[in-house]
Amino acid sequence: MGPEPRRSLWRRWASLLGATALAVTAGGALACPAGAASTNVDFAAHCIPPAIAGLPPIDGTTTANIAVDNTSPKVGDTVTVTYTVVTAAASNPTDLALPADIMTPTGTVVLGGAQTGNVTVAGPKKNDPVPGRGAFPSFSMTGTFTVTAPGAITLSPGDYNIHTSYILELDTPCTVITPPAPVSETITATDVSQPNTRAITLGSASGNPGDSVTVTGSNFTPGATVTLAGRAGTAQTADTATVTADAQGAFSGPLVVNDRTTTGVVAYEGGAWSSDKGAGPAAYVVVDNTPVPEGSQKLTTTVRAGTLSMSQAGDAVQLSAVDFGQGGASAGSLQTVTVKDFRGGPAGWSLTGKVTDFTGPGAKIDAGKLSWTPACATKAGSPSTCQAGSAGTVGTSGATLAAAPDSALTGGEFTVDAGLSLNVPAFTPPGTYSGILTLTLT
């Protein structure tokens, strides 16, 4: 090849690469994904064309958009982010047409607010042909991040880079001149509610006025100050004491009970009773030891307290199959659980569940992909009324399946069911996957 053909080829490369360098700040309008509520934002970008293009740095205005697949995640959820360069100030400055599918974009999305950091995003090697002197197409990049903190999390477009694969492999990086760029999307993350597993037992179920009852607790916060208190129905009495939980969250301490109206004993962390940080009430009766008047007879009978128990209709659930490449909901129904509360007294109950990851042939499906829709029915004549838990994710942290509240008199028989749905990713390797769902009644 002679000198003149070589110079001609280099001029062609330079024209092409100069046009490609401008592509990172140019593009036609591209609509946000359906249902997205994010905002297009403008920011000044500084782009450096490949040295072979012989062009100076390009400063221009980029219009971008950040969209997410979930605007109300929970801590621990994975959020998919889409960063779209929508429009810019430039177009192809040459008469040279560019072929399709030569541009591969990468970039970052900047997190702020309750959670900070950068999310790496990348786009496919895909673009429409660009005619000479025509506008450059928009491009989108996607990535994911795990929510680590509750609260409002802002998302702003960050630096990005265009890699071109036409004649030569070249990069054109673009940086935000005055970071951070404006916020395009805000999501609000909520904390995962942890099931309360605190529990107490009493050394005796009854006593005379002024007697001391030993209260033993477990699963409290290690080192926490715990208040022991008498309850008359749903009201706290003046009978209180404090103990300190040990390094394992356990304690044992006395409570002197004087109030004759006492129906139970509770234990709680903090300055006041809370079902989130408390346990009980455990049934307790103050014996009426009033002297019998002369010429009278005191008649006494005993109703023996039973237990809080549950049984299951079975221990295996077969979820429906899904197709490789499509994935989706693998559905089934929880084996019916029967709860019997024959304790008497004022204490309610809570039935919670948590699940492990689903393991299979060299792969797994995350536990957070399992959700349920609980239902609960109360047998006629039961003093308590069963309440179904909220529909949503089960996961390794767990969720409430059903509960019955504290009341002056509780008890009864209840049946608990739930619809189950495992969201299987589209390209999960074929095979059988199993996870263990553990139910806990407290």
Automatic annotation (TrEMBL):
Organism placement in taxonomy: Bacteria, Bacillati, Actinomycetota, Actinomycetes, Kitasatosporales
Segment forming the signal sequence: 1-31
Protein name: Beta-xylosidase
UniProt keywords, alphabetically: Signal
Superkingdom of source: Bacteria
Protein source organism: Streptomyces adustus
